[in-house]
Recover the amino acids of this structure.
C-alpha cells in the first residue's frame, strides 16, 4: 500500500462553497473505485478568521488537500486519479509519502463522511538548503516530534515524509504534517499551546515549540493552512 497527498488550488471562477461540495461529493465518489482509503481536507468557512498563523510562501496558496491510499502510485496506475482531481482543480500537485502517526486520533475519532472535531492544520515543509536530508529527518522525527506533542493541544499528529514528487512542477517539499486541534485553539493561542489559564505554561510551551522547529525548518520554505478534515474512507473502513 502507498500513500499519496494531493494539494489542490481552486479556480477563481469557482465559489469556495461549491468547490468544497464538489470535492466531498462528485470527486470523492469518482475516486472511490480507485483508492483503498480517502481523506479530504478543505480550507472552508469553518476555518476562517482564527488567530492561528497561516503561513503562506506559495501564492496563491493551496485550498484543499486530498490524502489517499492505493496499491500502486506509478504514473499509469495513477492516471485515472489525476484526471479526476484535475477536473476539480485547474492546478494540483502530488507527492508519494511515507506516513507515521505518532499521535493517533483517539480523543475525537473521525466519523465516516462527517467533519472531524476541531480543525486540522497542514504544514508543507521545505528542506533548509544547508541541511542534509538525514539531519532534517533526525531533527524532525527524533527531536521535534515529542516537543510537538508535549507543548500543543493537538489530538492527532501525522508525519508524511516525502518519498518523491509525482507531478511535474510540484513544490519541493520534503515533509507534510497534519495535526488536529480542539476548536478552542483556533481563537486562543493559550489553548493552542496547551496552557489555557496558565500564562507561564503557555509561553514556555510556545518557546519550546519554536526552538524545536528552528532546528530543522526554514520558515521561508513552509506553508501552513488550517482545514476541515473529512475522513471519507478510513483505512480498513
Amino acid at each position: 500500500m502507498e500513500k499519496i497527498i494531493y494539494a489542490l488550488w481552486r479556480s477563481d471562477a469557482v465559489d469556495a462553497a461549491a468547490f468544497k461540495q464538489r470535492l466531498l461529493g462528485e470527486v470523492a465518489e469518482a475516486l472511490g473505485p480507485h483508492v483503498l482509503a480517502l481523506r479530504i481536507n478543505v480550507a472552508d468557512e469553518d476555518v476562517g478568521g482564527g488567530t492561528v498563523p497561516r503561513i503562506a510562501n506559495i501564492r496563491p496558496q493551496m485550498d484543499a488537500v486530498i490524502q489517499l491510499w492505493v496499491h500502486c502510485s506509478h504514473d499509469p496506475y495513477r492516471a485515472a486519479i489525476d484526471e479526476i482531481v484535475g477536473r476539480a482543480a485547474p492546478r494540483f500537485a502530488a507527492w508519494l509519502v511515507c506516513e507515521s502517526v505518532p499521535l493517533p486520533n483517539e480523543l475525537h475519532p473521525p466519523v465516516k463522511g462527517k467533519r472531524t472535531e476541531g480543525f486540522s492544520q497542514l504544514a508543507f515543509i521545505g528542506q533548509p538548503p544547508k541541511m542534509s536530508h538525514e539531519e532534517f529527518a533526525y531533527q524532525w522525527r527524533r527531536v521535534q516530534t515529542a516537543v510537538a506533542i508535549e507543548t500543543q493541544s493537538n489530538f492527532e499528529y501525522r508525519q508524511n515524509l516525502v518519498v518523491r514528487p509525482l507531478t511535474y512542477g510540484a513544490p519541493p517539499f520534503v515533509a507534510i504534517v497534519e495535526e488536529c486541534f480542539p476548536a478552542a485553539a483556533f481563537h486562543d493561542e493559550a489553548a493552542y499551546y496547551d496552557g489555557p489559564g496558565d500564562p507561564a505554561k503557555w509561553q514556555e510551551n510556545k518557546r519550546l515549540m519554536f526552538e524545536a522547529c528552528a532546528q530543522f525548518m526554514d520558515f521561508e520554505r513552509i506553508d501552513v493552512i488550517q482545514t476541515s478534515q473529512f475522513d471519507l474512507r478510513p483505512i480498513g473502513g
Summary: Strands lie at 2-9, 37-42, 64-70, 91-103, 119-126, 156-165, 173-181, 222-233. The chain is about 30% helix and 30% strand. The mean pLDDT is 95. The radius of gyration is 17 Å.
